[in-house]
């Protein structure tokens, strides 16, 4: 059958302002429950919200970065529903007149690029958090539930895409691109696992050019979960259609542990939010000169930086991507390049071994125990032949763990590789003498035998021979035997 998958995303990102969306409470994560609250974010009668200017600024910056039109006038609405984690019983959000709309973000899928439409970017407030006390930690079977309102009223941006995505891989790529945009703007800390960046999806599978039924997926808490959940759902819907069945319009919950989605509620029970304009807040009417000033202040975006890393430093795209899609790692890289060594070699170390060590230790690049100066030193030691690439890997690991500089480690351990031709030649001769079978195999045209002989040279020097010199000398010595 001729299937077509259509995916749209709805993303919520917490804005990293100092205070909440409509009151002065702190947004710092954690702390004793209900200590970052006040009568406004607790929804006490008679209190009045005041919009956070910084949050509006951040939302406009995001709108501009996503190529949206910024509304000259936009208003807040009340979205009414009852839930214990929401003290006012309505969420202040935006409805038909959002702050920005009609934008796009392009994703690079390697083989092709796709421009994904952005329907809207609007401002709203976050809810509190319910803690269910009981064995399961879930609401079902809980003995009692507690509410922590520290997060209630944290500013959020909601981003809604057009249904322009065509595969789970594209959806994941879009989220990576969007996260990078948020990171480069410096307006959100974007931690999907901690919930400061969240994503819901709708997915339908159509057959033979006709649109399928839209199913909404919730509870995907990582990039991997997003792709897995959508892949599962794509296959589930195809299987239903292949069996001649009908896909039900519903909301489904991703169960990470089981690796499946299951139905939550059907659309008939969908909420009627009774949206109406928030009477306690004035419209947002950003001055055009202010918007222009914000437009001019936009930093370099990840896609631009990727192009620049490729053209300016001559990096292969896959390496450049590793550096660019982690802003701090990209900054670290550029700082190292400024110390002056070969940019391509530096990129290999930063995007490779160093990124691996940082990842393993869950440390961001700006807090790396090996500083840009250390990486530059390491590259210099390799490039000038003092140590081999193999030895450099161990040196970097040790520098990372101990905080010592690569140069210190090399001299303390006497690690410099043997680049003395007489010393290497003596070992080459010894290896040839001790391995007559391998030598005659090589002379009979078995190239594999050379690798074996090289291995013996490295073994006798305990890996310290400069490999390039050693292999040249070995080939030369073998030639003389022919
Ligand atoms: Zn408050
Ligand atoms: Mn929302």
* Shape summary: elongated
Strand content: 15-25%
Bound molecules: zinc ion, manganese (II) ion
Written as H for each helix and E for each strand, in order along the chain, the element string is EHEEEEEEEEHEEHEEEHHHHHHHHHHHH
Largest sheet: 9 strands, mixed
Calculate the mean pLDDT score and round it.
92
Low-confidence region ranges: none
The number of helices is 15
- Rg, please? 29 Å
**What's the count of strands?**
14
List the SSEs and their pairings.
Layout: E1 3-14, H1 53-65, E2 69-70, E3 77-80, E4 90-93, E5 100-108, E6 113-125, E7 129-133, E8 144-148, E9 155-161, H2 168-185, E10 197-207, E11 215-220, H3 223-242, E12 250-255, E13 260-266, E14 276-277, H4 288-296, H5 302-313, H6 317-324, H7 327-337, H8 343-361, H9 372-383, H10 389-402, H11 406-412, H12 421-434, H13 436-443, H14 448-460, H15 467-479
Bound molecules: zinc ion (ZN) and manganese (II) ion.
What does the model show?
The protein is an alpha+beta fold and 482 residues long. It folds into three domains: 3-292, no CATH class; 300-413, no CATH class; 421-479, Arc Repressor Mutant, subunit A. Helices cover 40% and strands 19% of the residues. It is built from 15 helices and 14 strands. It has helices at 53-65, 168-185, 223-242, 288-296, 302-313, 317-324, 327-337, 343-361, 372-383, 389-402, 406-412, 421-434, 436-443, 448-460, 467-479; strands spanning 3-14, 69-70, 77-80, 90-93, 100-108, 113-125, 129-133, 144-148, 155-161, 197-207, 215-220, 250-255, 260-266, 276-277. A nine-stranded mixed beta sheet has the order 2-5-6-9-1-10-11-12-13. A three-stranded antiparallel beta sheet has the order 4-3-14, with no helix packed on it. Strand 11, helix 3 (223-242) and strand 12 form a beta-alpha-beta unit. The radius of gyration is 29 Å and the shape is elongated. Bound molecules: zinc ion and manganese (II) ion (MN).
